[in-house]
Every structure is written in C-alpha cells, then in structure tokens.
Specification:
It is a single chain. By secondary structure, the chain is α/β, with parallel strands linked by helices. It has a single domain (22-306), classed as Purple Acid Phosphatase, chain A, domain 2. Helix content is 22%, strand content 28%. It contains 6 helices and 17 strands. The protein has helices spanning 55-69, 71-79, 101-111, 137-145, 202-215, 239-248; strands spanning 12-16, 19-24, 27-33, 39-45, 89-92, 123-126, 152-155, 162-166, 169-173, 221-224, 254-259, 265-270, 273-278, 282-283, 286-287, 289-296, 299-306. An 8-stranded mixed β-sheet has the order 1-2-3-17-16-4-5-6. Strand 10 (221-224), helix 6 and strand 11 (254-259) form a beta-alpha-beta unit. The chain is globular. The two termini are 16 Å apart. 47% of the residues are buried.
C-alpha cells in the first residue's frame, strides 16, 4: 500500500454520519454518541508485522507501546481533556509478517498477555492474512492464550474467537473477518490456496455471541477484526459475506467496529455503523500510530496517537 497519509498541524474536522472528527494539536478526536453511561478507555492498533529478529523494528514497536502506556497522560497534557488509563490494547490482525514461529514468539515477548511485557496493560489480539494458516503458529498461539485471558466470557468452539465483558460493554474479537467457509467469489483470495484465507467460523461465533447478549444483558458491543470496507479490504471478502455479517448485527447495540489491513488511520460509516481503521504502529523505520478510545457518559471519543504528529482522517 502507498502511504498517502499527511502530517498536519492546527485544526480540522470531518463529519461522517454520526461520527465527528476533530483534529487538534498533536491529536485527532472522533466523537460518537448514544452509548450507555460508563467511563473507561482502551487502545487499538493493527498490522504490527513482526518479522522475528529485526532489532530496528523492535525499537519502533517499543516506541509505540511506550506511547500507548502513557497515552492517557499525553492526551490530558496536550488537550486538557480528562481521560482514564486504558484497560487494554486490542490488536486487529497481522501480528506477524509471515506467520513464523519466531515472529509469534517475538509478539508474545514484546506484548505479553496480562501487562507483564513492554505493554503495561492486557492485550487482546486476533489474526490477519499475514499470520499464517489454520494450524500455524499464530492461530495456535492465540488458541492457547484465549482461556488465560482476563474477563473472557465466551470462546468459539475452535478456540480462536472470543468475547470479553468489561465496563458494561461486550468486546468481540473475530479474526481476519466475520465469515464462514471461504467464498470462491472473493476478488483477491482466489489467487491464494493457503488456509490463511479462512475465517475459521467467526460469523457463527458472532451470531451466537450477539444472540446470547441480546437475550441476556443486552450490552453495547465493540467489534474487532482485520478486513473492513476500504477499497483494499473489500477485495478480501465478498459482498455476500458482508451482507450476512450485516444481517447478524440486526437488533444488537453496536457501538463501533475496528479493523486494520490497509495501514491507514481512518473513520467512516458502513450501512449506518461507525467504523475505525486502526493504522499501524510502524511506518518503515518510523513510529506509526494507534487509536485511543475513551468512553465517558454518552460519548465515545477516539484519539489518534502518534510520535508528535497526527494523520488526517479522510
């Protein structure tokens, strides 16, 4: 992908449906409304692409994790807005560059699980198209970590997808995309035969989790997966798959959808739902960006955090 992001200063704004983006100083802010009363924060990033054994890359990732660790203080210092310390980091796929065991081991070492690594908070990760196939190191590693995670209330039968209940919300983590068996009509995936293209039953799990939530506590929901609806992502899952996903959301309280894949920060709406692209923590040998999500009362504010710069949301 070509990096077309712009470094900007000053103020700018973007309105996309119910999403209002305000760019200020060194931070970008998107404001949503209509969520239940609560106060908490979390961080979202994507497309880490760890190679396993690249010292410069590790330095760049370390710098982004440092920013995540101090993100609440940075926002308060630079905007004057009071935000809470993030309770977790969500990573929406492409944890590794090629799914090797060495790269997965490096991810576990750097990110930890409960906040014991360089990251000072629990991490909830999922896989993307760069993370290998169904029985590869990354999916097997995620499967082994899921029962150990804090606040997990539901895990898919195959062990790959999961739901976290925290702060009066449900956070559902769904792999590369919410799908079933691979659809041969996929515009891009038919070039590949490897099983990384498989969604591994994530749509069935989503339908089950949302149904149980609606019949139970009916909590508002955040969703996390790798592909979205930007022009590049749409090549990786079909319109029919997207229609089935849309049908699965009916009557559920979806507060926001987060994805990655195209390495760009962005905010947009898809069929009335608020969607955010989480960017990437690295830009070659430079520190990249991530999203800081602050929930307070009836507002959700999304800050773009980076190394003394921001990227304009389209």
């Amino acid at each position: 992908m070509t990096d077309t992001d712009n470094t900007i200063n000053g103020f700018g704004s973007l309105i996309a449906g119910r999403v209002k983006l305000i760019l200020a100083g060194f931070l970008g802010v998107a404001m949503l409304t209509g969520c239940s009363s609560s106060r908490f924060s979390f961080v979202v990033m994507s497309d880490v692409h760890l190679q396993g054994g690249n010292p410069r890359q590790r330095q760049v990732i370390d710098s982004m994790l440092y920013l995540a660790n101090i993100s609440d203080r940075m926002i308060r210092d630079r905007t004057g807005q009071s935000v809470s310390r993030p309770f977790a980091l969500f990573v929406t796929g492409d944890l590794t560059d090629s799914g090797t065991p060495e790269a997965w081991d490096e991810f576990e070492e750097i990110f930890g699980l409960h906040g014991e690594g360089r990251l000072e908070m629990p991490v909830y990760e999922t896989f993307g198209n760069h993370d290998g196939g169904e029985n590869g190191a990354v999916r097997e590693g995620i499967r082994s970590r899921n029962p150990l995670r804090k606040d997990v209330v539901m895990i898919s039968e195959n062990g790959l997808h999961y739901a976290v209940e925290k702060k009066g919300y449900l956070f559902i983590v769904l792999g590369s995309y919410p799908g079933g068996d691979w659809d041969p009509e996929c515009e891009w995936c038919h070039y590949f035969k490897e099983s990384f293209r498989e969604a591994d039953g994530s749509l069935d799990f989503l339908e089950q989790a949302l149904k149980e939530n609606r019949l139970g506590k009916n909590l508002p929901v955040f969703l996390f997966f790798h592909y979205g609806w930007d022009e590049f992502s749409k090549l990786w899952w079909t319109p029919a798959e997207q229609d089935r996903f849309y049908s699965a959301l009916k009557d559920s309280r979806i507060s926001g959808i987060f994805h990655g894949h195209n390495h760009q920060i962005d905010a947009y709406t898809w069929r009335g739902y608020n969607v955010f692209i989480a960017g990437s923590p690295q830009r070659g040998e430079r520190t990249g960006d991530a999203l800081f999500v602050s929930v307070r009362r009836d507002d959700i504010r999304v800050f773009v955090i980076g190394n003394n710069w921001i990227r304009a949301l389209k």
